[in-house]
Amino acid sequence: MACSCSAPEPKSPAPGFRKALWIALWVNLAMFLVEGYASLQSGSVSLLADAIDFFGDSANYLLSLSVLSMGMLWRGRAAMVKGITMTVFGFAVLGRAIWVMQNDITPEPLTMGAVGLLALVANMGVAIMLFKFREGDSDMRSVWLCSRNDAIGNVAVMVAALGVFGTGTAWPDLIVAAIMGSLAITAGISVVRHARSDIAQGKVAAAAYNG
């Protein structure tokens, strides 16, 4: 489920939180590779959308962890990269869905279901690991909620697999992919708008400091 899974910028992180974020980053990156390959093999666009979501999450964690100690200007620039990337990936998913529809390709449902289940286990593992931080500040809670929402996205992929298996058509896969791609686009645009505001504030603060 597309969302802005950026790592928080705590002044004093809870013990073990930074380590948990790094683990979450590597889990997301590994699942991006697994789902990306599976999407190409099975022809599933919803798997591709979920793979892109895993990549976006891992990139967000890495970018955010890299600029934690920097000022608002650099954090805003990092957020801008995230937002643009999310938006581009969302359009890529929609474009792929249109291409699959035009070429009348029906995905392989067993691969979709198996890899969707693996992704669900991965996201549930991350959510459980971050569960103890859910009552921290708003940023900590958002990280946990994002992992939980991603697990819901994995369930959607599995439902799409059942739909493909039951109907023998690609429509269930394409509908789920379209929803996930649209969510990525809207989330990316929202992040870009917020990043522009942060960059503007950061430039004002830098000008005041240098002046």
Blueprint of the fold:
Layout (H helix, E strand, L loop, with lengths): L16 H26 L2 H22 L5 H31 L6 H22 L7 H30 L3 H40 L1
Helix pairs in contact: 1-2, 1-4, 2-3, 2-5, 2-6, 3-6, 4-5, 5-6
Q: What general outline do the C-alpha atoms trace?
A: globular
- Note the main sheet: none
Number of strands: 0
Query: H/E element string?
Result: HHHHHH
The percent range for strand residues is: under 5%
Indicate the radius of gyration in whole angstroms: 18 Å
SSE-based structural type: mainly alpha
Terminal Cα separation, in Å?
Answer: 44 Å
Average pLDDT score: 79
Which regions have little confidence, pLDDT < 50, spanning 5+ residues?
A: 7-12
Total helical elements? 6
Helix content range of the residues, please? Answer: over 70%
Task: Characterise this structure.
There is one protein chain. With 211 residues, the protein is mainly α. Helix content is 81%, strand content 0%. α1 runs antiparallel to α2.
Observed structural traits:
211 residues, globular, mainly alpha
Brief characterization of the structure:
The protein is mainly α.
